[in-house]
Amino acid sequence: MIGGQTAALAWGSTVTPLIRPGASPSHVPVLSTPEGTVVLPEAIRALDGALSLSESGSPDARLLIIASDGALCGSDDEEEDPAVVSQSLVDRLRRNGCAVLWLCLDGRPQVLDGAVPVQAHDPVSAARAIGQAATAALRQAGH
User: How far apart are alpha carbons 47 and 84 in whole angstroms?
Assistant: First the structure.
C-alpha cells in the first residue's frame, strides 16, 4: 500500500493555503493570480515544511508541482531575488530526491533549472504529464 499526503496553495504577492496536508478538497478552486510572483520562495518553503519535501533519504515519493509563467519579480539584492532564492530551493529539493514539475502558463515560460516543463494549455496533456511525473517519483522512491 502506498500512503501519501498532498497540499496545495496559491501564491502571488501572498501565500494562500488551499488544501492542507491530509485534507481532501471539497471542490476544485478556480484561481486568478494577477498579482506578482515575489513570494515563490515562501510558497516552496511552506510546502516543504508541511510535506517534508526536502527530507534527505526519505523513502517517500515526493513531487512539487509549480504552475507559473515564471516571470519572477527581481531584486537588486541577489540574496533576496525570488528567482535566485527559488532556484536554490529547487536545487535543494532535487538533491534530496524530490521531483519538480513546472506547469507553463504562457507561451514563453521562464522555468527554473531542473524543473520539468509541461505546457498547461491542454488539460489532457498536463494531466498525463503530472501522472507520468508522479509515477517516476514513485519509482525513484522504490514503491
Answer: 18
Q: Are strands 15-19 and 63-68 parallel, antiparallel or unpaired?
A: unpaired
User: Which pLDDT score is estimated for 46?
Assistant: 92
Rounded alpha-carbon distances, angstroms, from residue 31 to 16, 80, 119: 11, 27, 18
Rounded Cα distance, 77 and 82, in Å: 10
53-104, pLDDT tens digit by residue?
998 877 778 889 888 877 776 555 566 788 899 999 999 999 998 988 888 8
For residue 99, count CB atoms less than 10 angstroms from its CB and return exposed for 0-12, middle for 13-18, buried for 19 or more. Answer: buried
Residues constituting the chain: 143
Query: What does the block give as the cell for 127?
Result: 494531466
Q: How many CB atoms lie within 10 A of CB 21?
A: 14
Spans of all domains in the chain: 34-52+61-141
Instruction: Report the SS3 class of residue 56.
Output: coil
Give the predicted TM-score (pTM) of the model: 0.80
CA-based Rg of the chain, rounded to a whole angstrom? 15
For residue 43, give the C-alpha cell: 510558497
